[in-house]
Amino acid sequence: MELPEEYNDVNTWPRITFSQWVYNPHVTENNELDVQRVYTKWDPHRHYLVTVLTYLKKVFYMKAFGDNAVANKEALELSRNNPAGYRKMVEKCVKESQRGMFINEPNSSLKFKQENEMHVALRELMVDRLQDPTMVTRSIVLNCVKEAQKIGSERIKAASEKKEKEGADEGSDENLAAAAEN
Fold it and tell me: What was the pLDDT predicted at 74?
């Protein structure tokens, strides 16, 4: 969010720009929320940042868009003429955004990673075993981590073996089909 130096004067709108691509009829090609279309005249006595933030949230829950949603006309037309196609573009946008969450800054002490089987196992164990927050100890958490590593490794190995078996079965089917042709 950017506030101009003259912000809160008449007709000095706040700007909301997304750091990643957003496919929505209310968001421009430059990834900026079209605030001026809704607040045609910014009145500091009637409009507040909280109302802009409420509008920001609202545009992502809309099921249909009015004629004032012209920041991205392609998205507007697709939402009206091909709702399934619009949904597919939104899902593509969301996946791209989620992928961006795992790009880590060099030399950062925080490292974000995609969820894997060990994370799933750890969450399941902690939900099951740590129901009373007053009873959580370091050793209980570390035991959950160790057990999750084992469970996760077993799940990954089983999934890999299943994939190999399915690949081998497909190969057998292809060999049979080739033999039948000859």
Answer: 95
In the predicted model, is pLDDT for residue 175 greater than 50?
Answer: yes
Residue-wise pLDDT for 55-100, tens only, equals 999 999 988 898 889 999 999 999 999 999 999 999 999 988 888 7
φ, ψ for residue 41, nearest 5 deg: -130, 115
10-16, long-range: CB within 8 Å, 24+ apart, which pairs?
Answer: 10/41, 10/42, 10/43, 10/44, 11/41, 11/42, 12/42, 13/39, 13/42, 14/49, 14/52, 16/52, 16/56
Q: Which long-range contacts (CB under 8 A, 24 or more apart) does 54-62 make?
A: 56/16, 59/24, 59/26, 59/27, 59/33, 60/24
Q: Which of 110, 114, 89, 85 is nearest to 100 (CA)?
A: 114
d(CA 139, CA 136): 8
170 has a pLDDT exceeding 70: no
DSSP secondary structure string, 113-171? ----HHHHHHHHHHHHH---GGG--HHHHHHHHHHHHHHHHHHHHHHHHHHHHHHHHHH
Of 11, 77, 15, 83, the C-alpha closest to 47 is: 11
Evaluate if pTM is beyond 0.70: no
Q: What is the mean pLDDT of residues 101-129?
A: 86
